[in-house]
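Retry 2 of 3 after timeout on previous attempt. Resubmitting structure tokens to design endpoint.
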């Protein structure tokens, strides 16, 4: 897409109009800047000298276009072919969908390459616009599938922690994915989660909630099982049902209100 055009005309306005037509925009478009390179001059005595007006029109780069251009350059450097981009800019969120046969190279291991690309694209987009824009890069429904996988993982390990009293240590994740886990865990009574580690090694730990002890029908140390006519073991097992989801429990604050990486401040 052309970013600037130079045109000449009998008048400045005519030259400006020609340059805008070449860029595919209107003269009143607020995305353009124009510079008068040379004013028109009439011929002396109608015979000598004189020249037309010359104007340069520049199309200002938007944050969304800067983001898309940045990704295209990366894709070209990776020598990937058959990749198409679809960009939307709504409510200060730039969403770029990447499609093609080689998108696996862009996604990377568990989305790590795509997350890094998203982070760098966010930096590039916000260099051209004073109003902060959040950038989301997706391919197909990868992020939606990843979110459902993490929700299922968090719930499963939370139920395990509530039933067995044992904790589980997850692999390092970015803040957005850690928040998905926290949100899922905090809906299960008897389980809790927290983050440990620093920087790239920060990860989620899921364990039993000490404030919400789960009564499994067992006596204390050295205690005796209740006499239920030989059916004590069966009754105890029947009481150990999976904890029910509790939507009223609030998730831990792990990047609340932000998407992946959130705002990048200088």
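Retry 2 succeeded. Sequence:
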């Amino acid at each position: 897409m052309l970013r600037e055009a130079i045109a000449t005309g009998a008048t400045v306005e005519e030259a400006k109009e020609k340059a805008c037509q070449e860029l595919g925009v209107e003269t009143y478009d607020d995305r353009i800047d124009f510079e008068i390179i040379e004013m028109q001059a009439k011929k002396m005595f109608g015979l000598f000298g004189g020249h037309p007006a010359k104007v340069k029109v520049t199309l200002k780069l938007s944050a969304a276009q800067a983001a898309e251009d940045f990704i295209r350059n990366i894709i070209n450097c990776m020598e990937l072919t058959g990749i198409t981009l679809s960009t939307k800019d709504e409510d200060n969120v730039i969403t770029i969908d990447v499609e093609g046969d080689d998108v696996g190279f862009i996604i990377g291991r568990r989305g790590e390459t795509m997350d890094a690309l998203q982070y760098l694209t966010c930096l590039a987009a916000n260099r051209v616009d004073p109003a902060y824009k959040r950038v989301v890069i997706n391919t197909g429904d990868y992020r939606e599938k990843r979110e459902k996988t993490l929700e299922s993982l968090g719930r499963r390990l939370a139920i395990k922690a509530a039933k067995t009293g044992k904790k589980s240590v997850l692999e390092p994740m970015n803040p957005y994915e850690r928040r998905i886990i926290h949100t899922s865990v905090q809906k299960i009574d008897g389980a809790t989660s927290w983050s440990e580690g620093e920087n790239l090694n920060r990860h989620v730990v899921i364990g039993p909630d000490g404030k919400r002890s789960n009564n499994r029908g067992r006596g204390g140390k050295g205690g005796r099982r209740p006499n239920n006519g030989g059916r004590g073991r069966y009754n105890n097992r029947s009481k150990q049902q999976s904890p029910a989801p509790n939507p009223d429990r609030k998730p831990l604050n792990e990047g609340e209100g932000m998407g992946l990486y959130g705002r990048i401040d200088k």
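Attempt log closed. The chain has three domains: 4-59, 63-140, 148-215+239-256.
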